[in-house]
Amino acid sequence: MQWRYDFFATVLQFLCSDTANDLQRYCNCFAATLQLLCSATATLLQCHCKKFAALCSSNALIESKL
Description:
This protein has 66 residues and is an all-alpha fold. 97% of the residues lie in helices and 0% in strands.
């Protein structure tokens, strides 16, 4: 009877370990994707902010000459 428990424990440990590894890979992939999306979004926002700042600066310059 003991061998059944040992076998069951071994199989359970293997499955849990395998599942943990799969989850780790999934989480790493998800984290990398999220980081890439955030980086791309931040870059776009920075670009838009620079354009907006330049536009505001141009408008202020035009208004100061009026």
